[in-house]
Amino acid sequence: MAFDSLKTRILETADSLGGAAIMLADVAGWMFRKPDGLDNLFKQMVRVGVESVPIVVLSALFTGMVLALQSGVASMKLFNQPVFMGTLVSFTMVLELGPVLTALVVAGRVGASITAELGTMRVSEQLDALYTLGTTPERYLVTPLFISMLIMLPSLTLFADLIGILGGYIVTVYSFEIPGSVYINDVLSHLQIVHFAHGLIKAFFFGFIIVTVSCYRGLTTSGGAEGVGRSTTGAVVVSMVLILVSDYFLTVLLNALGII
Amino acid sequence: MIRVRGLKKHLAGKWVLNGLDIDIMDREIFTLLGGSGEGKSVFLKNLTGLMKPDGGTINIDGTEITELSAKKLHKIQTQIGMMFQGGALFDSMTVGDNVAFGMRRLTDYSREKISRMVKKYLEMVGLDGTEDKLPESLSIGMRRRVALARAIATRPRYILYDEPTTGLDPITTDVVCDLFLELQKELDVTSVIVTHDLKTAYKVSSRIGLLYEGKIVAAYDTESFRKSDNPYVKQFIRGNRNGPMKAKNGQESVL
Fold first, then answer.
1. Fewer Cβ atoms within 10 Å of its own Cβ: the N or the C terminal residue of chain A?
2. pLDDT digits (tens, 9 = 90+) for A100-140
3. Are A10 and A56 in the same domain?
4. A80 and A196, same structural domain?
5. Residue B214 backbone phi and psi in degrees, to 5
6. In this structure, are A104 and A24 located in the same domain?
7. Could you tell me if A50 and A24 lie in one domain?
């Protein structure tokens, strides 16, 4: 019984991986050809990027602030004065929290809505209708989402990095009464372009994970409204777990390549 | 012409289509009748290549579509207009954009011409002036008519209708049936309708088939179907649970 269930699970996973690979091959083919409706691509860019700005700003700002607060308090205890706050905030944001936090926020906000939308279109036969109207779901819907996510998630991450550093500045200057120039000097004297590259490469991969999982789950939805709910929850959970797990391995790889 | 031989499809542990044979001639309106869950929609999806059969052949105008690559199949699919059961209108677009969608991709019409054609097709289905409305603001009958306008706008060779009158009141059903006949005359296409509504079948069809247990058990011209002595046809027309078509699970009738 347990063996049968395991066998079914393995077969289902293999089926999903194969299906996702076919979708990716299809999307790769369309990605470098003329887009099916520039207005659609623009709409998806706004949906993935611009509309995510408020929540990304909010989460990055408070993360930067709490990082500064914690590091300030800790260094006060250890050294009797707050030190290296700019360095700690900027390194943590740029290398780790900027890409991971932004990816988690986008997976919850955009990834869920992509799966829900594609899933609803699947169960209401709108995806089938596309085939008889001169296009395919992969070309008309999925490819613009891939382009948008792969451009917008690194852009949002860069934005989150800067906002987080600004949050740290606010706490350093107003709570610990350290001159702003000291904080900025701390940030600039250690942070290099390669650190931003490290974070942005991660963001690119996280974007790839989110859009692949969300689109595949949406396209393969079945079972009416309940099925749409199941797919949406599944897409968010799988995306988040994959982001957190792959973050470690990406860090190991980037370190090995000297991008740090 | 569409020639189907030995079509088989296995879904959810049973053979929904089990050796279906049928020829659909050019310019005819062929209606496939059958009880709920008998696989009528599955048959249409196999015809359009939206579902891959597990056996048999489907030949459309001399091309065997079950063996085509995705790219070649897509070319055939663009010659088929389909009116889906729930309309399948793109709900984020206006009615006008829905009707224009296929024309923008399959024709080289200018923007102005597409706009004129959208008006024309909406007028044909009796919905002029609805271009800027969203599908959600329309009734189910109106949505189906928009779906019909969208299906015919690309001037396909074949139009497939999936339960086009199910859930409509008798008067709207009559309006939609008249619309099929007008369009058939005007567009010179081949139509395939799947339904369980006898009234629709009698009014619009040139030929009627009956699907049971994955096979076509009868296919006659409309008049012969009406008068047929075929026990399956007689049972279906009378709506009698006693006959060669068995009730499902011992309770639920296939009718």
1. N
2. 999 999 999 999 999 999 999 999 999 999 999 989 999 99
3. no
4. yes
5. 80, 5
6. no
7. no
User: In terms of domains, do A20 and A43 share one?
Assistant: no
The 10 Å Cβ neighbour count of residue A196 is 18
Q: Give how many domains chain A has, as a whole number.
A: 2
Q: Among B194, B86, B181, B196, which residue's Cα sits nearest to residue B143?
A: B86
Across A86-93, average pLDDT: 96
Which residue of chain A comes nearest to B98, CA vs CA?
Answer: A133
Specify the 3-state DSSP secondary structure of B13.
coil
Residue owning tokens 């009958």: B141
The continuous run of DSSP H or E covering B18 comes out as strand B14-24
Mean pLDDT of chain B: 91
Cβ-contact B208, B31 below 8 angstroms: yes
Sheet holding B190-195, edge to edge: B80-83, B158-162, B190-195, B29-34, B207-212, B215-221
Other C-beta atoms within 10 Å of B229: how many?
6
Which residue range is the domain that position A204 belongs to?
Answer: 39-256
Q: Do A131 and B102 touch (CB under 8 A)?
A: no
How much is the pLDDT for B254?
A: 41
A59 and A12 fall within a common domain:
no
Residues A23 and A51 in one domain: no
Nearest chain A alpha carbon to B48: A132
Within 10 Å of residue B198's Cβ, how many Cβ atoms? 16
A146: left (phi over 0), alpha (psi -120 to 50) or beta: alpha
Smallest CA–CA distance from A43 into chain B, residue = B92
Separation CA B57–CA B54 (nearest Å): 10
User: Which residues of A fall within a CB distance of 8 Å from B78?
Assistant: 132-134
Query: Phi and psi (nearest 5°) for A242?
Result: -65, -35
**pLDDT digit string, tens, across residues B213-227:** 999 999 999 999 999
| ipTM value for the complex | 0.88
Chain A residues touching B152 at Cβ < 8 A? none
| In a shared domain, residues A105 and A166 | yes
Measure the CA–CA gap between B160 and B44, rounded to whole angstroms.
7
